[in-house]
Write a structure and sequence with these properties.
Chain lengths: 288, 252
């Protein structure tokens, strides 16, 4: 099966890597040529590392490289059975991608979106074929984690839901159909975990390291502040705002000011930036 | 040391096991059994001769008040009383007693298979020497003692019960099944167990009691318990200990 991924950021690259190991053809496209090169590099290094660790068969890694290609234009995605959009979580940007795809791909193509903060129904409404649009929300470590939350928009056709699930199982993922709401299930519930830790911090008397150590001792691989840094402080704040809006500003979902202050200070978290913790060698975005 | 342990499963069983492993003489009473006058008399006798008492009952404010008062009034004057600060702060619990200086809060969260970390929260009234004594007691049981500010729910129970509460809300609002919800959090967040499985382990009444304690302490609607959680408790579906919570279990 030919799968195309639009958007070569961290999420796009990880999804491309997961798909490349199990599909017959993977095309990665990004309007930014250098982002595409970086993503290719990153996937390539990840495959090397897995081979070196012995977790990946050398022949399979070779095959993954062979099926992987970059497309300089969106037209390169035209032949794909499923196009997965993984650009930044911004409605205007996503709608622009989908309306461009509307002109290029055949009617049978499934259009997947990785948005976690936006409504699938809203994104789909901007296309001429809302019944072909489906949310495919990969876990943050898409290349390692099995779960994919499959979001059915108000007009998504049952056939598209079936085919998307079949595809996900074929690449070794566990699909779970979830309702169309910001954060879906995982991020929505996980936010109670990180949010409560932020409130606990407000009361004083506990360091972030102590709170993380307590939760990690309780069995969570990442304490709440490690988790926020891993997801990205900015991404956590964006999601928190989306949930707050979607609940018509219900008080329990109010975004935490600490996230806002960190983002303002350029401590956006994620892969290359400091967040709650200092990342050695990282510079904050404000200094860049 | 002679230790009196009173309260609810699974907390008291674990504590009794750990105490016995350190050769403490344990008198163990389940709060439910104290409805019986003979058992209550036995508990009172055990209280008068113990050197340290541990309380763990969080299903409701009134039940906790009744138990703490009943135990404390019978303790020897120098015996520390370690109280579980899930559904009320140690300071509030101490205020119910005749000798608040001997009350020290703690927090544990099931499942506890080995002594790991115990949250340690002296009340505002706690005597310094008593607090030091209580700390040594926990350390002697093998716990790493982590000092946390005294408030209802302390740290871990507060975070975990809030997380469970949101999971129950989402489940009730979306119709996602119990199994799917747990699977999503296990796979998507790498949680050690799904929130609903965890609620069954802790006891739905204890989760509810902790949330109500948090709501009373902070007054913030963030802690308002999900109505479904309350319904489950009314129905007696308290989790593993009653054979049915979010899941069903073989007879216990």
């Amino acid at each position: 099966m030919h799968i195309a991924i639009v958007g070569a950021g961290t999420a796009g690259a990880r999804i491309a890597q997961a798909v490349a190991l199990n599909a017959t053809q993977v095309t990665l496209h990004d309007a930014d040529e250098s982002a595409m090169r970086r993503a290719l590099d990153r996937v390539s290094r990840a495959l090397d590392r897995d081979v070196a660790r012995g977790t990946l068969d050398r022949a399979r890694a070779r095959r993954a490289r062979r099926v992987f290609s970059l497309a300089g234009t969106l037209e390169g995605c035209a032949g794909a059975a499923i196009v997965i959009e993984a650009v930044s979580d911004n409605l205007a940007l996503k709608r622009a991608v989908f309306s461009a795809l509307d002109e290029i791909v055949p009617a049978s193509t499934i259009l997947g979106t990785t948005s976690h903060a936006l409504s699938i129904t809203t994104i789909a409404a901007g296309t001429r074929r809302p019944e072909r649009v489906i949310g495919l929300h990969f876990a943050r470590q898409a290349h390692q984690m099995r779960l994919v939350e499959v979001v059915r928009g108000a007009r998504t056709s049952p056939d598209v839901v079936d085919r998307a699930q079949t595809f996900l199982r074929a690449i070794g993922k566990t699909p779970l159909i979830v309702p169309d709401m910001p954060g879906q299930i995982v991020n929505r519930v996980a936010q109670a975990y990180t949010g409560e830790a932020l409130h606990l911090l407000d009361d004083g008397g506990l360091e972030i390291t102590t709170i993380d150590r307590l939760m990690e001792a309780a069995g969570f691989p990442l304490g709440p502040f490690h988790l926020i840094d891993d997801l990205g402080v900015e991404a956590t704040l964006t999601l928190s705002r989306a949930i707050f809006e979607a609940t018509y500003y219900a008080a329990p979902y109010r975004p935490h000011p600490r996230l806002e202050r960190l983002v303002e200070a350029g401590r956006i978290g994620g892969e290359q930036a400091s967040g709650f913790y200092d990342l050695p060698g990282a510079v904050s975005r404000a200094e860049k | 040391m002679r230790v009196l342990i009173v309260g609810e499963v699974p907390f008291v069983d674990t504590l009794a096991g750990l105490c016995r492993a350190r050769d403490h003489k344990v008198d163990l009473f389940l709060a439910d059994d104290l409805q019986d006058q003979a058992a209550l008399d036995r508990m009172v006798r055990a209280a008068t001769r113990c050197q340290l008492a541990i309380e763990s009952l969080n299903e409701s404010q009134t039940a906790k008040l009744w138990l703490v008062e009943g135990v404390e009034v019978n303790l020897p004057p120098d015996a520390p009383l370690l109280v579980s600060a899930l559904s009320a702060s140690a300071t509030e619990i101490a205020s119910w007693t005749d000798h608040p200086a001997r009350v020290v809060g703690y927090g544990l969260l099931p499942p506890i298979t080995v002594a790991g970390m115990v949250e340690f929260a002296p009340a505002l009234q706690t005597d310094f020497e008593i607090a030091a004594h209580a700390r040594r007691f926990w350390e002697d049981l093998g716990f790493e003692v982590v000092r946390v500010p005294d408030s209802a729910g302390l740290a871990r129970p507060r975070i975990v019960c809030s997380w469970i509460n949101e999971a129950v809300r989402v489940m009730a609002a979306t119709g996602v099944t119990v199994e799917d919800l747990d699977l999503a959090l296990q796979l998507g967040m790498n949680a050690p167990r799904g929130p609903l499985t965890w609620a069954d382990e802790i006891g739905l009444d204890v989760v509810l009691g902790t949330l109500e304690g948090l709501l009373r302490y902070w007054g913030h609607e963030r802690y308002r318990p999900a109505p479904l959680l309350r319904q489950k408790v009314y129905a007696g579906h308290l989790g593993k200990k009653t054979g049915r919570g979010f899941y069903k279990y073989d007879a216990v």
